[in-house]
Amino acid sequence: MSPSDSVAAPGRGSRLASIDLVRGAVMVLMAIDHVRVYAGVPAGGPAPAVFFTRWVTHFCAPAFIFLAGTSAFFYGKKHPDLSRFLLTRGLWLVVLELTVLRFAWTFNFDVTHVMAGVIWVIGWCMILMAGLVRLPVAAVGTIGLAIVALHNLTDPHWDQLIPALTGGSFSGFWKILYLGFFGGPIQLGGGPEGASLIVLYSIVPWIGVMAAGYGFGALLDREPVRRDRLVYAIGIGATLLFLVLRGFDLYGDPRPWPTMTEPGANGRPGLPPLLAFLNANKYPASLAFVLMTLGPTISLMPLLERARGALARWLTVFGRVPFFFYVLHIPLIHLLALGVSVLRTGAVDAWLFTNHPMGNPPVPEGYAWSLGLLYLVWALAVALLYFACRWFASVKAERRSWWLSYL
Q: How many CB atoms sit inside 10 A of residue 215's CB?
């Protein structure tokens, strides 16, 4: 999803190892959540084991979208066609999300149900970045930071925004731009029975995250000692800012965490205080969510630059071909879930052919997996993907065909 072949360390002609390591790590973590979808395990809740199974995957989208911007910066240093590349790559991702990946998630051809997920929003962000990168790098980074930092000014008006922006002729635009699925599905046909698009990842604030990542690339292009000092300052500073803003509920998230500790109106139990504190809003991603996830990730980058050993090499394989990993891992996990269903019940449950990951009916009674089985299937999927990704990484390293940059 990013021009990864361009990520080179300043003055050394070699790749920045930390970027590949972070990308590899977040791809592996992301697979946990996608196994969870087919395992019928809830996305969070008061049980710590279930909560953290979901929570650790929150680091994936912010890190990957941020580093997609960083990779675009380094691509632009080597190639004069950055705007064209971002435009065509973005359009390709949007089309792929709505077609190939939609089928991989569902294994059905229900064209009346389409979801706009993370690949969709990365595509649209790249399309917008195709114009933004014509500005100075500092301007792009500043615009990105402003979007991330300021969009939560709408929080006090959130209850009024949804009905105000979802009733007019531009309702679909506002859902794609900011409201996401909180504004309801976008009707693509005639009436409620027609085709609909569910926007999971709205463009704001993710375009801000990608633009900030583009500006971050200029910091990584500095001399290593100064670079590491700046990266530590940014990462630790972002983490501390999250602790202050979230701890005192000053700004940056539409849901005060103390209220989450109380039972909900629908009878659901409240969260323990620590879990409530960490339960920052992801859709759309709040400032608290971005600081909570990107702060620690950025802080680790100088350490990861010097990481060695089998685990580092293993994660680097995934980090060099992240989009290839993404395209393969969804149908692989889906197929493994079909196999688990056969082993457990002797048949494939029809629920596995419904509209995952959103729009599917409730989990059938007795279907949900244990967390042990969930993690076992995840480990098997990652092991199988390693061999495919290692092969494709070697192909990309040996060839320079134009189409390889789109996978």
A: 21
